[in-house]
Amino acid sequence: MTFPSLEQAQAGWRKALDALPTSPPKIPAFFFAHGSPSLAFNESLLGTLTGPVGEMRRYLGPTGPLATFLKDFGPDLLKKYNPKGIVVFSAHWETQGERLVTDYGDENPLLMDYYGFPAELYDLKFKSRGDAALSQRIVELYKQAGERARTTPKTEARGEDGRGFEGPGLDHGVFVPFRIMFGEVFTDIPIVQVSIDSSMSPEKNWALGKAIARLREEGILILSGGLTIHNLRDRASFAPTTARQIYHEFDKAILDAVTISEALARKEAMINLRKHSGFRTAHPREEHFIPVYVAGGAGEGGNVVVISQTYGTATIAFGV
Q: Looking at the Swiss-Prot or TrEMBL record, what is one Pfam family this protein matches (predicted)?
């Protein structure tokens, strides 16, 4: 099996990004590959890793195609949409039955919710801010849709931190890619994070995106992060050169489903992806796949464009 070179992949996503309309009435909602802490690895460390783990780290690391894509993706989002705010969902924050919405004030703390990584990964910086009015607007829209929702402040812990405490903050599915997309200091545009639903129901998470779709008309960029392939029990699954055929088949099935032109048929095909023979292999637990439904709901009814088709790390625009 042959795979596109980095140069070929970049030419493809650059063409797709350039073709997105500038300043549309509704900003598209995006499912994006948020990667892993490997994105922040020191390049010198990558050369010491061998086997499937080495391939994974290099593919998902600071010189791989995902990091290269994110460097192009972030600036293009700002240039095309000039958003007033960013609302982000991550595979790494789920709550049951109630949406939690960050309201962190002048500086968003970071939750380093990963373990066993080099010490330097616990010194990462990403300075950003929240916005109380945006947080309250999100809660309002959820309540209008019949959903339970509330804000959560800095004083309320939301998870375990690899530095040895429980704390609040944007998780690594947000700040690790955002550092690459927007730089280590990004305070001009507020960022608010919202939890996904832990039921892992495609329909419930689709509804979470649909409930806040109106934000797209209000100048707000909606980003929902995960990965199209995520099996930590099989490190070989993360890189195209080491992944078994079943992973490639499922990855292609995702792209086939999201590019169906008719909206209802597309949604049905996306939901039916859970019946694919490779689904459970690719996602022993589907928290990294569920964010695609949040983005699909937020962009319901519009066209869909696959921005990046790179294996396991696709980025998709809904509502174009």
A: LigB
The reported pLDDT for the residue numbered 42 is: 81
| Number of domains composing the chain | 1
Range of the domain at 308: 6-315
pLDDT category at 45 given cuts 50, 70, 90 is low
- By three-state DSSP, how is residue 191 classified? strand
- CA separation for the pair 71, 228 (Å, rounded): 20
3-state secondary structure of 88: strand
Residue 1 placed within a domain: no
Which SS3 state, helix, strand or coil, does residue 205 take? helix
Which CATH number covers residue 213? 3.40.830.10
In a domain, 320, yes or no: no
Q: How far apart are CA 313 and CA 230, in angstroms?
A: 10
Q: What percent of the chain has pLDDT over 70?
A: 98
- pTM, two decimals, is 0.97
